[in-house]
Every structure is written in structure tokens, then in C-alpha cells.
Design a protein that fits this description.
Two copies of one chain form a homodimer. The two termini of chain A are 13 Å apart. The first copy, chain A, has ten helices and 18 strands. The longest helix of chain A is centred in the N-terminal third of the chain and has 10 residues. In chain A, the strands form four sheets. Chain A has a seven-stranded mixed β-sheet with strand order 6-5-4-3-2-1-18. In chain A, strands 7-8-9-14-15-16-17 form a seven-stranded mixed β-sheet. Chain A is globular. Chain A has 304 residues and is an alpha/beta fold. At the A-B interface, α1, α2, α3 and α4 of A face α1, α2, α3 and α4 of B.
Chain lengths: 304, 304
């Protein structure tokens, strides 16, 4: 299961109701994992208000280095340090090595835990694998903004799901041996070899894509294909010349073309105090569209 | 008249109720002026919620370069830029030139207005004049923290206040000529020379001191003498070894010895969810003590 919390949903200038961009993705797999995508000003307070522990965050993915997407990093790292964090924090982003190093040199930190910066490619047109665990992969792809910027994809790996009907047909019983079977693919059980495919079906993993700031582009279409959820820049109602953002109709067209299951628009300009109009416009093109608001939470579960 | 708004009142780690340090001082003199002392994370949103325009802020005074005191600067400067600010912003602080330059190099700013950094001395034991207008002076003095740190003093200049009794005694009438008299010290009025001291009394200016983070020290006592308001670090109830902060009793003793009119304790550790105990302890030593809370506002007016 994945729980996504929108910690900030505004574009460049915050409003009373909307904070600068940040999204927490909690993955409830064999291991619980909390990932953070972007980290605008006030993210640590938004995390506190959402009851998400910032000490559990081990990976932060920055889409680009505009202050509204990263300036919460500095006080967040200071708080982690004051809270006596020991474990490593990884920060991914285009040019992350340069900017994370600049951040750690800013002011007097007295950092007490290791911070590793990982550069993410910001040129090319194929999704790149940038992080992997036994349960999921993180991919990135460059997008179209005024500065080097990327989109990220959380791709859960396919998982074997035990089929009780198949078990019964083979005269087998549920039990802790199935855990071993999932891990090793085959086991000896009561004198006979059982293969995972005999008793289980392969369930596809969940896929979540976050565009960061971007104009509509082929790369975002490429990385979004068949996603369970696309979180896309929907700054404006109508395209604005000279602005490197998408409007809600452009985002909806990408959602439709990429055949995603659900679209959530974020990075909303503060001029829209009521987001209904944006949502309705998007829905005309892609019915399963929503406009994010601060503290909005959604859960994704594979139902197959 | 001076209006002070506490935008953030917590120490290193924010809580749900208390934001990182920042204090807005609005001076309603001949010219209205809005000054900001420290600029922790979230300051721009706290300003919005207080209905104080951040576009009106022309001077920011940073006490020291720990992230909780400065990290709101980065998104605040970005917002000022996005709002098409043209006028210069001055940022004062110990080592301000270095750190402001680092901040402006961080990420992609596209700054559209001039930012001037002014180094404030962080060694010595006398108040130093660091800024002056026709109506007030700003002084600073080094204080005792783990890193270079200063306290600031807002000192309104004495003002001539027309004494209607004196006017009457001289057979003179109120009128716009008195403005000229205040400006030039003497004027020709109906064929005779009138000097300001003939018809007015010199009213002392208001004095406000902000300690920033500090242990109790002689310098803070020196700069606080006879202040109308001392805003002092009151992080703890009891002194904590190894911590470069004051407890509320130490702050109250300074207020008493410096003969200030009012003490407001700030930079409160998040462990004190109810600040009453702190306030009571301080009041035992200095009765006119208060503990600040976020959005607390106080007005100072010279009554003499």
C-alpha cells in the first residue's frame, strides 16, 4: 500500500492556505519506507501536522533547484541533526552534489549525520534508474523547465500473491513456509518441491509519477505510461506565454494519452482561491482528475 | 508609535504552535518603516497571516547564522523577486557579506532587485551604530553564543513635542509653520524669530533591544540599559550546561539590572507546551515579564 500526503501544493508564491511544494510517499511494503519529493519552505511543520515522522525519511528527491522546491531542506536537516539523527540521508536531484554541498556550507550547521547527494541526469529522453530496493525502483527523466529539472517515478516491483484456490487444488495449506517460497521462488515442502508460480499469481506493482515543474513534453508522457497515479504541474487554467509550466488541460491530455488511472494536479498558482474551475476543466479531458490541496491524502492499493 | 509582531518564538526545533524566530518592528514615524529581526523558516507565511506586507521590508537584521534564524530569507527573497520588487533590500548580520552571497548563489534565483549585505562587528564591548535615519538609529553589540552572534537595539531619536501651554504664553497659534520649526529648529513667524525650545519639549525616543541567542553577558546588559522593551532569549526554565542560551531567571535579572520597562522572553524550547511556568518564574525577579507567543503584538508609545 502507498499513502501519499500533499504537504504543499502552491506554485512560486505561497498563500495562506497553500504551502510550497512537498509530497510525502509512505510505502507500506515488507519494509516501511518514507520518501519525500521536493521540500519547500515549511515542510517540517507540514510533516508534523500530518503526523509523519521526518526522522523516518531516508531519501529526498528534488525536482529542480528553485527555492520553492528546496528551501525547506536547510531547516529540516538542522532539525534532524538537533534530534541526533545518525543514519544517512540521501538527496537526489539534478546537480544535487553541487547544491547539497552549498546548503551544508551555509551558515553554521554542526551536522551530526552523513548526507549523500546523488546527481540525477537532466539530459536524455529515457527513464533512468536512480535508486532500487528489493521492493521498488525510482526512475527519473528530464522535463522542460527554465532550469535543469526532472520528473520522478516510483515503480513498485511485481509481487507474487498467493492464490488460495491454487493452494487448495494442490492440497497445500497456508503457513509460514509461503514467506520462504516468496523469497526464494521455490521450496521443499513436506517432501515435495513447490514453485512460486504453482501457487501464486504475479501482481503488477503500483506506479506513481511526479512531474515537478514542467511544460508538457514527450518525456513526461514517456515516464507516465500506465501509471496508477500521475501528479502533474497544473499551475494555470490557460497556458501562459513565457511560463515554463503546464495548464490543467495540457496535464489532462498527458494523463489521457499516457493511459494513467488517476491525475492529481498540483503547483497551483495562488490566484486560484477556488480550485473547482481548474478541476472541472481537467475533467472534461480526463474524468479522473483532482486538484490537490494541502494535507490531502490518497491511498493506492493493488487490487488485482 | 512602534508595533512589534512576534512571527516565531520557538528555539531550534519548531513545534505545531511556534515557528522559527522572526520579529517584525513597524515604526510609525514621519515615514512608516518595517524592519525584520531574524527570518526563520516560514517567516513570509507568518507575515501574510499578520497582514504585514513583506514588500515594505527594506532592512533585515540577522542575529547569527543558525538555520532557525535565517532560512526563511531564501524563499522570502525569491517571493520578493517574483513580486517584481525593484527597491534595494539591506541585510545586516555578523559575516553577512559571506552568507548573503552564499544564499544568492544557492539554486537558481534570477534576482531582479539589489540586495546589499552589511557586516556587523561581532567582537568588542560597546554598542556600534550600524544604521541611521533622521528618526532612528540601529545599534548592535556582540553576544555570547556558539557562533558569532549579536544583539540589536532600535533607538528612536528624541523628538520635539509642541507644548501648547508654551505656545499660548507666547501668544502663538498652532499651524503648519510648526512643522517647519521642528525641521529647522527656528523660523521667522509673523516677523519674529521662534526657536523650537521656546515652544516645545524634547521627548526621549523609544528603545527596543533584541538579544538574539545568548547566554547572559555584560554586553547585553550594556545595550539594554533603560530600554522600553527588552526581548530576550529565554529558552529554558533552568540553565542547561553546555547550552549557549539564557534561562528565564537570567533574562529577568538582566532586565532588572538594566532597568528596562518591559521584558518579553522568546526562543522558547518546544518542551514547554504551557509557558505559564516560565513567565511566573521570571516575574518573581522582574514583574513586568511576559513569554512571547506566535502572532503576539505589542505597541509602544512614548507617553511623556
Amino acid at each position: 500500500m502507498i499513502q501519499i500526503t500533499f504537504l504543499g501544493t502552491v506554485s512560486g508564491i505561497p498563500s495562506k492556505d497553500r504551502n510550497h511544494p512537498a509530497i510525502a510517499l509512505e510505502y507500506f511494503g515488507e519494509e516501511k519506507d518514507t520518501l519525500l519529493f521536493d521540500c519547500g519552505e515549511g515542510t517540517q511543520k507540514q510533516l508534523m501536522q500530518s503526523n509523519i515522522s521526518f526522522m523516518k525519511i531516508n531519501k529526498i528527491f528534488i525536482t529542480h533547484w528553485h527555492a520553492d522546491h528546496f528551501s525547506g531542506l536547510i531547516p529540516l536537516i538542522q532539525t534532524m541533526s538537533l534530534e541526533k539523527r545518525k543514519s544517512k540521508l540521501k538527496i537526489f536531484g539534478p546537480e544535487a552534489e553541487k547544491f547539497v554541498s552549498d546548503i551544508l556550507d551555509l551558515g553554521y550547521f554542526g551536522l551530526r549525520f552523513p548526507v549523500e547527494a546523488i546527481n540525477v541526469p537532466f539530459e536524455g529522453n529515457k527513464p533512468m534508474l536512480i535508486d532500487e530496493t528489493p521492493e521498488y525502483q525510482i526512475l527519473s527523466i528530464p522535463v522542460l523547465h527554465t532550469v535543469p529539472a526532472v520528473a520522478y517515478c516510483f515503480q513498485e516491483k511485481p509481487k507474487w500473491k498467493i492464490d488460495t484456490k491454487k493452494l487448495r487444488e494442490l492440497g497445500l495449506r497456508s503457513g509460514s513456509w509461503l514467506k520462504k517460497l516468496k523469497k526464494f521462488g521455490k521450496v521443499e515442502y513436506k517432501g515435495r518441491e513447490v514453485k512460486i508460480e504453482d501457487v501464486a499469481n504475479l501482481r503488477p506493482g503500483l506506479k506513481v509519477v511526479y512531474s515537478g515543474d514542467t511544460k508538457p513534453c514527450d518525456n513526461i508522457l514517456e515516464i507516465s505510461k500506465n501509471a496508477d497515479l500521475l501528479i502533474h504541474d497544473g499551475t494555470f487554467l490557460e497556458e501562459e506565454e513565457g511560463k515554463a509550466h503546464a495548464d490543467v488541460k495540457q496535464a489532462a491530455r498527458i494523463a489521457k494519452e499516457a493511459n494513467v488511472k488517476q491525475l492529481i494536479l498540483t503547483h497551483i498558482s495562488r490566484r486560484y482561491t477556488d480550485a473547482k474551475e481548474l478541476e472541472e476543466e481537467a475533467k472534461k479531458i480526463f474524468p479522473n482528475s483532482k486538484v490537490a490541496f494541502d494535507f490531502m491524502q490518497i491511498r493506492l492499493k493493488q487490487v488485482i
